[in-house]
Design goal:
There is one protein chain. This protein is mainly α. The protein has 2 domains: about 60 residues, Arc Repressor Mutant, subunit A (Orthogonal Bundle); about 120 residues, no CATH class. The protein is about 75% helix and about 0% strand. It has 9 helices and no strands. α5 packs across α8 and α5 packs across α9.
Length: about 190
């Protein structure tokens, strides 16, 4: 029974891997279950038996991807600005262009809107975690404004403007983001 359970889990992971790979390669509304099945080396029936529908498969892939992003971005000690910026830029270097493509499609594909909204939530949570020591202690408009400023400076579009449009090197991009954060990340406690 253990071997069967492990095989089923490996099959599910393979299907999720296939869906994720296809998602990053082409518009999500063009992904077909037969493509997913072929890439995962299973039948369409296996995909449907495991996930029920394309929408449920997509939701499961989104959830797994979100957990992976959350785990990768959580490796930051609150208040350690250099490591937070390095972590952020590393993530954008790996996923930035893909995420930008997804964001460009989000208004046309409802499932992408859900994914983008989740990504924004994860980003806000990460900023709160990474820069928490620099946020005003009391909840209210000052804290909300400061959090919004940090979220904006660390946004993927800021990375895009620096890295892709201004053609800064990765190192220079990290430095620019750290410099923009500096007025907001001075220890005031």
């Amino acid at each position: 029974m253990v071997a069967r359970s492990e095989a089923a889990a490996a099959t599910a992971e393979g299907i999720l891997d296939a869906m994720t790979e296809l998602f990053w390669e082409q518009p999500s509304d063009q992904i077909r279950l037969d493509q997913v099945a072929a890439r995962a080396r299973v039948t369409v029936q296996t995909v449907l038996r495991r996930f029920g529908s394309k929408e449920k498969l997509f939701a499961a892939a989104v959830e797994r991807q979100s957990e992976q992003v959350r785990a990768a971005r959580a490796r930051v000690t609150p208040g350690d600005v250099p490591s937070a910026v390095a972590n952020l830029v590393e993530h954008y270097e790996l996923m930035g262009d893909r995420v930008l493509r997804m964001l460009a499609e989000e208004e046309h594909i409802p499932a992408l809107k859900v994914l983008a909204t989740e990504g924004r939530r994860i980003h806000r949570e990460w900023c709160e975690h990474a820069f928490g020591p620099f946020l005003p202690e009391h909840h209210g408009s000052a804290r909300n404004r400061r959090r919004a400023q940090l979220v904006t400076i660390c946004d993927i579009y800021t990375w895009k403007l620096l890295r892709r449009e201004s053609r800064l090197s990765r190192r220079q991009t990290q430095k620019a983001i750290a410099e923009m954060l500096a007025p907001f990340t001075k220890d005031t406690h």
